[in-house]
Amino acid sequence: MLIVSVLPVMAHATDTLSTIRERKTIIIAHRESSIPFSYLDGHQQAVGYAIDLCMKVVEAVRRELKLPALAVRYMPVTPANRLQLIAGGDADMECGSTTNTAERKRQVDFSIAYFIASAKMVVRTDSGIKNWSDLRDKTVVTTKGTTNAKTLADRGQIRSLNLKLLESKDHAEGFSMVEQRVAAAFAMDDVLLYGLKASAKNPADFQITGDSLSTEPYAIVIRKNDPAFKQIVNRELSRLMLDGEIHAIYEKWFQRPIPPQAINLNMPMGHLLRSSIRFPVDDVADLPQ
Protein backbone atom coordinates (compact mmCIF):
# COMPACT_ATOMS: atom_id res chain seq x y z
CA MET A 1 0.00 0.00 0.00
CA LEU A 2 1.46 3.37 -1.05
CA ILE A 3 0.58 6.35 1.09
CA VAL A 4 1.50 9.60 -0.64
CA SER A 5 0.81 13.06 0.70
CA VAL A 6 -0.53 15.24 -2.09
CA LEU A 7 -0.08 18.94 -1.55
CA PRO A 8 -2.89 21.26 -2.70
CA VAL A 9 -2.09 23.26 -5.82
CA MET A 10 -1.35 26.76 -4.55
CA ALA A 11 -1.59 30.05 -6.44
CA HIS A 12 2.20 30.05 -6.70
CA ALA A 13 2.60 26.35 -7.32
CA THR A 14 5.95 25.19 -8.65
CA ASP A 15 6.08 23.48 -12.03
CA THR A 16 9.35 21.58 -12.09
CA LEU A 17 8.32 19.44 -15.05
CA SER A 18 7.72 22.48 -17.27
CA THR A 19 11.08 23.93 -16.24
CA ILE A 20 12.85 20.67 -17.05
CA ARG A 21 11.03 20.42 -20.40
CA GLU A 22 12.02 23.97 -21.32
CA ARG A 23 15.72 23.61 -20.52
CA LYS A 24 15.86 19.93 -21.60
CA THR A 25 18.03 19.32 -18.55
CA ILE A 26 17.35 18.01 -15.05
CA ILE A 27 19.62 19.35 -12.31
CA ILE A 28 20.60 16.99 -9.50
CA ALA A 29 22.07 18.45 -6.31
CA HIS A 30 24.55 16.02 -4.78
CA ARG A 31 26.97 15.69 -1.90
CA GLU A 32 30.71 15.18 -2.21
CA SER A 33 31.48 13.02 0.84
CA SER A 34 28.27 11.27 1.98
CA ILE A 35 29.48 7.71 1.43
CA PRO A 36 27.75 5.55 0.19
CA PHE A 37 24.77 7.78 -0.67
CA SER A 38 26.24 10.61 -2.69
CA TYR A 39 29.94 11.24 -3.11
CA LEU A 40 32.73 11.67 -5.65
CA ASP A 41 34.50 8.60 -7.02
CA GLY A 42 38.08 8.43 -8.25
CA HIS A 43 37.07 10.25 -11.44
CA GLN A 44 35.32 13.07 -9.57
CA GLN A 45 31.93 11.76 -10.70
CA ALA A 46 28.89 11.79 -8.42
CA VAL A 47 28.01 8.21 -7.44
CA GLY A 48 26.18 6.38 -4.68
CA TYR A 49 22.99 4.72 -3.50
CA ALA A 50 20.96 7.95 -3.60
CA ILE A 51 22.40 8.85 -7.01
CA ASP A 52 21.35 5.47 -8.44
CA LEU A 53 17.81 5.94 -7.10
CA CYS A 54 17.64 9.46 -8.48
CA MET A 55 18.79 8.25 -11.89
CA LYS A 56 15.80 5.89 -11.87
CA VAL A 57 13.65 8.95 -11.26
CA VAL A 58 15.40 10.72 -14.14
CA GLU A 59 14.39 7.84 -16.43
CA ALA A 60 10.80 8.18 -15.22
CA VAL A 61 10.89 11.91 -16.00
CA ARG A 62 12.28 11.17 -19.48
CA ARG A 63 9.36 8.86 -20.14
CA GLU A 64 6.81 11.29 -18.74
CA LEU A 65 8.11 14.22 -20.82
CA LYS A 66 8.93 12.06 -23.86
CA LEU A 67 12.44 13.51 -23.88
CA PRO A 68 14.87 10.63 -24.55
CA ALA A 69 17.72 13.14 -24.89
CA LEU A 70 17.04 14.73 -21.49
CA ALA A 71 20.42 15.81 -20.09
CA VAL A 72 21.53 15.53 -16.47
CA ARG A 73 23.58 18.24 -14.78
CA TYR A 74 25.08 17.76 -11.31
CA MET A 75 25.39 20.51 -8.71
CA PRO A 76 27.52 19.96 -5.57
CA VAL A 77 25.85 21.15 -2.37
CA THR A 78 26.63 21.21 1.34
CA PRO A 79 24.47 20.57 4.42
CA ALA A 80 24.33 24.33 4.92
CA ASN A 81 23.02 25.31 1.46
CA ARG A 82 21.21 22.23 0.08
CA LEU A 83 17.68 23.20 1.14
CA GLN A 84 18.06 26.80 0.04
CA LEU A 85 19.26 25.77 -3.43
CA ILE A 86 16.29 23.43 -3.92
CA ALA A 87 13.78 25.95 -2.60
CA GLY A 88 15.26 28.65 -4.82
CA GLY A 89 15.04 26.53 -7.96
CA ASP A 90 18.79 26.18 -8.56
CA ALA A 91 18.41 22.37 -8.65
CA ASP A 92 15.40 20.13 -9.25
CA MET A 93 16.08 17.51 -6.57
CA GLU A 94 18.74 16.80 -3.97
CA CYS A 95 20.07 13.28 -3.85
CA GLY A 96 22.17 12.76 -0.76
CA SER A 97 21.63 11.92 2.90
CA THR A 98 19.05 14.51 3.94
CA THR A 99 16.61 13.73 6.74
CA ASN A 100 12.91 14.44 6.29
CA THR A 101 11.76 16.59 9.22
CA ALA A 102 8.63 18.62 9.91
CA GLU A 103 10.72 21.77 10.33
CA ARG A 104 12.42 21.34 6.96
CA LYS A 105 9.08 20.74 5.25
CA ARG A 106 8.27 24.41 5.86
CA GLN A 107 10.93 25.19 3.25
CA VAL A 108 11.02 22.13 0.93
CA ASP A 109 9.24 18.85 0.35
CA PHE A 110 10.42 15.24 0.50
CA SER A 111 9.92 11.97 -1.32
CA ILE A 112 9.27 8.56 0.16
CA ALA A 113 12.07 7.65 2.59
CA TYR A 114 14.72 5.47 0.90
CA PHE A 115 16.88 4.91 3.99
CA ILE A 116 16.46 5.08 7.77
CA ALA A 117 19.55 5.82 9.85
CA SER A 118 20.27 6.14 13.58
CA ALA A 119 22.33 8.98 15.03
CA LYS A 120 25.45 7.73 16.87
CA MET A 121 29.09 8.80 17.20
CA VAL A 122 32.52 7.73 16.02
CA VAL A 123 35.43 7.87 18.47
CA ARG A 124 38.99 6.67 18.53
CA THR A 125 39.25 3.08 19.76
CA ASP A 126 41.71 4.10 22.47
CA SER A 127 39.46 6.89 23.81
CA GLY A 128 37.55 4.77 26.31
CA ILE A 129 34.30 6.43 25.18
CA LYS A 130 31.37 4.00 25.04
CA ASN A 131 28.28 6.20 25.43
CA TRP A 132 27.19 9.81 25.56
CA SER A 133 27.75 10.14 29.30
CA ASP A 134 31.45 9.51 28.67
CA LEU A 135 31.68 12.80 26.77
CA ARG A 136 31.42 15.03 29.84
CA ASP A 137 33.60 18.14 29.45
CA LYS A 138 34.85 16.92 26.04
CA THR A 139 34.86 18.45 22.56
CA VAL A 140 32.34 16.99 20.12
CA VAL A 141 31.88 17.83 16.46
CA THR A 142 28.89 17.45 14.15
CA THR A 143 28.23 18.67 10.61
CA LYS A 144 26.82 22.16 10.20
CA GLY A 145 23.24 22.27 8.95
CA THR A 146 22.32 18.71 9.98
CA THR A 147 19.62 17.49 12.37
CA ASN A 148 22.36 16.02 14.57
CA ALA A 149 23.64 19.49 15.47
CA LYS A 150 20.40 20.40 17.26
CA THR A 151 19.93 16.92 18.74
CA LEU A 152 23.44 16.93 20.17
CA ALA A 153 23.02 20.40 21.63
CA ASP A 154 19.80 19.31 23.33
CA ARG A 155 21.47 16.15 24.63
CA GLY A 156 24.31 18.11 26.16
CA GLN A 157 21.96 20.55 27.83
CA ILE A 158 19.62 17.88 29.21
CA ARG A 159 22.42 15.77 30.66
CA SER A 160 24.53 18.76 31.70
CA LEU A 161 27.55 17.22 30.00
CA ASN A 162 29.25 20.58 29.52
CA LEU A 163 30.09 19.66 25.94
CA LYS A 164 32.17 21.94 23.76
CA LEU A 165 30.36 21.74 20.42
CA LEU A 166 32.10 22.30 17.10
CA GLU A 167 30.56 22.29 13.60
CA SER A 168 32.35 20.96 10.54
CA LYS A 169 31.65 22.08 6.98
CA ASP A 170 31.03 18.48 5.88
CA HIS A 171 31.24 14.88 7.12
CA ALA A 172 34.81 14.35 5.93
CA GLU A 173 36.05 17.32 7.96
CA GLY A 174 34.13 16.14 11.04
CA PHE A 175 35.72 12.71 10.89
CA SER A 176 39.15 14.27 10.30
CA MET A 177 38.79 16.26 13.54
CA VAL A 178 38.44 13.00 15.47
CA GLU A 179 41.30 11.49 13.46
CA GLN A 180 43.53 14.43 14.43
CA ARG A 181 42.25 14.41 18.04
CA VAL A 182 40.80 17.92 17.72
CA ALA A 183 37.47 16.43 18.89
CA ALA A 184 36.78 13.38 21.05
CA ALA A 185 33.75 12.33 19.00
CA PHE A 186 31.94 13.04 15.72
CA ALA A 187 28.17 12.69 16.08
CA MET A 188 26.38 11.77 12.85
CA ASP A 189 24.11 9.17 11.27
CA ASP A 190 25.51 5.68 11.79
CA VAL A 191 25.67 4.70 8.12
CA LEU A 192 27.73 7.77 7.24
CA LEU A 193 30.08 6.99 10.11
CA TYR A 194 30.52 3.41 8.85
CA GLY A 195 31.45 4.78 5.44
CA LEU A 196 33.98 7.22 6.86
CA LYS A 197 35.50 4.57 9.11
CA ALA A 198 35.78 2.03 6.27
CA SER A 199 37.58 4.57 4.09
CA ALA A 200 40.02 5.70 6.82
CA LYS A 201 43.72 4.86 6.52
CA ASN A 202 43.48 2.70 9.65
CA PRO A 203 39.81 1.69 10.19
CA ALA A 204 40.68 -0.29 13.34
CA ASP A 205 41.60 3.00 15.05
CA PHE A 206 37.93 3.98 15.18
CA GLN A 207 34.67 2.60 16.53
CA ILE A 208 31.02 3.61 16.18
CA THR A 209 29.27 3.66 19.53
CA GLY A 210 26.59 5.26 21.70
CA ASP A 211 22.86 4.74 22.16
CA SER A 212 20.81 5.94 19.20
CA LEU A 213 20.04 9.65 19.58
CA SER A 214 17.35 9.70 16.89
CA THR A 215 15.87 8.01 13.83
CA GLU A 216 16.74 9.71 10.54
CA PRO A 217 14.59 9.00 7.45
CA TYR A 218 16.54 10.01 4.32
CA ALA A 219 14.61 11.17 1.26
CA ILE A 220 14.95 13.04 -2.03
CA VAL A 221 14.47 16.77 -1.50
CA ILE A 222 12.17 18.60 -3.94
CA ARG A 223 10.47 21.98 -4.05
CA LYS A 224 7.22 22.63 -2.22
CA ASN A 225 3.82 22.87 -3.88
CA ASP A 226 4.67 20.69 -6.86
CA PRO A 227 2.32 17.66 -6.70
CA ALA A 228 2.95 16.65 -10.34
CA PHE A 229 6.70 16.28 -9.93
CA LYS A 230 6.37 14.74 -6.48
CA GLN A 231 3.98 12.14 -7.86
CA ILE A 232 6.53 11.02 -10.47
CA VAL A 233 9.32 10.83 -7.88
CA ASN A 234 7.23 8.85 -5.40
CA ARG A 235 5.71 6.61 -8.03
CA GLU A 236 9.15 5.53 -9.26
CA LEU A 237 10.57 5.01 -5.76
CA SER A 238 7.47 3.02 -4.81
CA ARG A 239 7.90 0.86 -7.91
CA LEU A 240 11.53 0.13 -7.00
CA MET A 241 10.48 -0.86 -3.48
CA LEU A 242 7.38 -2.91 -4.22
CA ASP A 243 9.02 -4.70 -7.17
CA GLY A 244 12.04 -5.52 -5.00
CA GLU A 245 14.49 -3.78 -7.34
CA ILE A 246 15.75 -1.60 -4.53
CA HIS A 247 17.31 -4.62 -2.78
CA ALA A 248 19.89 -5.08 -5.55
CA ILE A 249 20.73 -1.38 -5.45
CA TYR A 250 21.11 -1.54 -1.67
CA GLU A 251 23.37 -4.60 -1.87
CA LYS A 252 25.55 -2.86 -4.48
CA TRP A 253 26.36 0.05 -2.14
CA PHE A 254 26.16 -1.45 1.35
CA GLN A 255 27.32 -5.04 0.99
CA ARG A 256 29.87 -5.00 -1.83
CA PRO A 257 33.16 -3.14 -2.44
CA ILE A 258 32.49 0.39 -3.70
CA PRO A 259 34.69 2.92 -5.49
CA PRO A 260 37.15 4.45 -5.31
CA GLN A 261 38.94 2.37 -2.64
CA ALA A 262 36.87 -0.83 -2.84
CA ILE A 263 35.71 -0.48 0.77
CA ASN A 264 32.82 -2.66 1.94
CA LEU A 265 30.47 -1.36 4.62
CA ASN A 266 29.12 -4.90 5.23
CA MET A 267 25.88 -3.34 6.44
CA PRO A 268 22.76 -5.53 6.12
CA MET A 269 19.46 -3.75 5.59
CA GLY A 270 17.98 -2.78 8.96
CA HIS A 271 14.51 -3.83 10.06
CA LEU A 272 13.14 -0.27 9.98
CA LEU A 273 14.12 0.14 6.33
CA ARG A 274 12.76 -3.32 5.46
CA SER A 275 9.43 -2.38 7.05
CA SER A 276 9.26 1.00 5.33
CA ILE A 277 9.95 -0.62 1.93
CA ARG A 278 6.91 -2.84 2.41
CA PHE A 279 4.72 0.20 3.09
CA PRO A 280 6.32 3.25 1.40
CA VAL A 281 5.34 6.62 2.91
CA ASP A 282 6.58 10.18 2.65
CA ASP A 283 5.15 11.33 5.99
CA VAL A 284 7.59 11.07 8.89
CA ALA A 285 4.75 10.39 11.35
CA ASP A 286 3.75 7.27 9.37
CA LEU A 287 7.18 5.62 9.34
CA PRO A 288 7.48 2.27 11.16
CA GLN A 289 8.73 2.45 14.73
TrEMBL record:
Residues 25-257 form the Solute-binding protein family 3/N-terminal domain. Gene3D superfamilies: Periplasmic binding protein-like II. Keywords: Signal, Transport. Residues 25-256 form the Ionotropic glutamate receptor C-terminal domain. Belongs to the bacterial solute-binding protein 3 family. This is Amino acid ABC transporter substrate-binding protein.
